[in-house]
Amino acid sequence: MAETANWYVVQTYSGYENTVKATIEKTIENRHLEDVILAVSIPMETVTEMTDNGPKVYERKVFPSYVLVKMVMTDESWYIVRNIRGVIGFVGFVDSNTKATPLTDEEIQKLGMEKHEIVVDYAVGDHVKITDGPLTSFSGVVEMIDLEKNKVRVIVSMFGRETPAELELDQVELIEA
Q1: What are the extents of the domains in the chain?
Q2: H or E stretch including 29?
Q3: What is the chain's mean pLDDT, rounded?
């Protein structure tokens, strides 16, 4: 049974985030653990500060004292990450069966750690069929597509009236002509 990799939050001593990240990456390289520990990240944000000399742009840590690690949780991977200098431990409920609680897909998307590229096979003006939700089996015309928000607006004819419906991108499919 192949286990899947999940994102975990590792708490570090204040100011040790970069050291912990570099040490984990060096350990991955030295021990050839690329298939067990897949990624290490320190979430950063760009900040623009207005000063007397004009705007100053710099990067700052979104979560000081925390590093995110995408890994397959095994005894070995847990031990390696847990025992790196500067690491306090994994964040999350820990019981006798689990070493740490992984982040949920929703949390990962909110943090922007993984982007899921959505490809749609329809465009504005195409006739589509609604495949999910309260308007399932209705058809309409695509009025607007917003890939960033994962939304599509479809004009549906209901009871003789044109009604706009805002749906998720995957709730609609192209009607083949």
Answers
A1: 6-111, 127-174
A2: helix 17-31
A3: 86
